[in-house]
Design a protein that fits this description.
alpha/beta, Aspartate Aminotransferase, domain 2, seven-stranded mixed beta sheet, four-stranded antiparallel beta sheet, 11 helices, globular
């Protein structure tokens, strides 16, 4: 029997020790393995994941340029909370939220206040906490009860707001969307507002469909309610996606700090902020709208630092990537990137509408996201879950899901167009989808009757 080679470096790949056995899954192995082997095992397993660039379900960015990736690699070891050790990174964080305050038309951007977060969910939580605490302080000052706070939002709101209400003991009041009122638009809002309402959440780019909720209309509805009842209800704009689209593609749309009732705005930088996950931002129109009681002064890691966050240690690299993009693209560069994504979205929505079986819910002219449903006459043949499965076979991830509450009988599919989905790839997708529709139609077609088959045979 030939002697087994002892030198791992000369063993053939996949014949080295530990590569000829299955990796331990639930118990830590006793002995170490070479870094090359450990890398190869993990690398090979992740090949079973979907291709991120073909994932049309996610809002999360899947592409950045080479310089951004190099900057990422140079700074992934920095801890954002350690502002004394990394003072320039801390200064860059401040630069970013001041830039955003200006972008969102803060009346005094230099004196606004904001912070980075791990993602927009944390940013929403912080915005909600500020609303609740300000309501509590005002109620206590008036000698009134602080029990039973409530927050008003659309039934199509992102799950992070359900979490906020659950975790911080706030009653969620969901305004159902309908065929007539496809977003929270101020309709019937007076039925939901009372003295315990801490705020209204308006979403700039609903997760289900990508549609903008009309923040100005919501604000005007609240103006009327205040005039009738005296209830002064603020707005938090959940701009997870749209807050980084509207300033560039719809600059005349009034949704931001131009409305005095808008106290805070959050966004997800790893969506249309174009940064790799995970990074979010939350900004208040002025410092007085963030209660000082929520800000902690921590003496730790070599210095004293104010912090308002749910997390403590977190990556700083994404903050640097955001500043890189602000420098790299500027307003015009961001406009070009977002416009291209929207052009691709409209091209895709037009192509899908032209196929026949589908009815668009929206067309991607708000954020570059759109949804569609099957026409009634086509539902008996196959459903959107069948189409989703067919597309997945070709690598495309396109979710199908029911709409919320009163529209739960409606199933839609949705595409999110991100930077990196080219027009060429979009045409490839349309060709694949068209072929899948033809396949499903053919599969659902009734078999010829025996009589017709015999007649055909003659």
């Amino acid at each position: 029997m030939p002697k087994k080679r002892e030198h791992i470096s000369v063993n053939p790949l996949y014949a080295r020790p530990d590569e000829d056995t299955a990796a331990s899954r639930y118990v830590m192995r006793q002995d170490p393995m070479t870094p090359e082997t450990a890398y190869q095992l993990v690398h090979d397993e992740t090949m079973l994941d979907g291709n991120a660039r073909l994932n049309l379900a996610t809002f999360v960015g899947t592409w950045m340029d080479d310089q951004a990736e190099r900057l990422y690699a140079e700074s992934y070891d920095k801890n954002m909370i350690d502002k004394d050790e990394y003072p320039q990174t801390a200064a860059i964080e401040d630069n970013c939220w001041h830039i955003l305050a200006n972008l969102w038309n803060s009346p005094d951007a230099a004196n606004s206040i904001g912070t980075s977060t791990v993602g927009s969910s944390e940013a929403c939580m912080l915005g909600g906490l500020a609303l609740k605490r300000r309501w509590q302080l005002a109620r206590r000052a008036e000698g009134k009860s602080t029990e039973k706070p409530n927050l008003i939002m659309s039934s199509a709101v992102q799950v992070c707001w359900e979490k906020f209400c659950n975790y911080w003991d706030v009653e969620p009041r969901y305004v159902p969307i309908s065929e007539e009122h496809q977003t929270l638009d101020g309709h019937d809002l007076a039925s939901y507002v009372d003295e315990n309402t801490i705020g209204v959440v308006g979403v700039l780019g609903v997760t289900y469909t990508g549609m903008y909720e009309p923040i100005e209309k919501i604000s005007k509805a609240l103006d009327k309610i205040e005039k009738a009842t005296g209830f002064n209800v603020p707005i938090h704009v959940d701009g997870a996606s749209g807050a980084m689209i509207a300033p560039f593609l719809q600059p005349d749309l009034v949704w931001d700090f131009r409305l005095p009732r808008v106290h805070s705005i959050s966004t997800s930088a790893h969506k249309y902020g174009l940064v790799y996950p995970g990074l979010g931002w939350v900004i208040w129109r002025s410092a007085d709208l963030l209660p000082k009681e929520l800000i902690f002064d921590v003496t730790y890691l070599g210095g004293s630092m104010p912090t308002f966050a749910l997390n403590f240690s977190r990556p700083a690299a994404q903050v640097l990537l955001q500043f890189y993009l602000f420098l790299r693209l500027g307003r015009e560069g961001f406009r070009q990137v977002q416009q291209t994504s929207q052009d691709v979205a409209v091209h895709l929505s037009s192509g899908i509408a032209a196929m026949g079986p589908f009815e668009l819910w929206n067309d991607g002219t708000d954020i570059p996201v759109f949804a569609w449903r099957l026409k009634k006459q086509h539902k008996a043949k196959w459903d959107l879950y069948d189409l989703s499965d067919r597309l997945k076979m070709q690598g495309w991830l396109v979710p199908a899901y029911p709409m919320p509450d009163d529209l739960s009988s409606i199933t839609v599919q949705r595409i999110v167009v991100r930077n990196g989905l080219s027009m060429d790839l979009a045409d490839r997708f349309l060709a694949d989808m068209s072929a899948d529709v033809e396949y499903l139609d053919r599969l659902a077609a009734p078999m010829p009757s025996q009589h017709k088959s015999k007649a055909f045979a003659h």
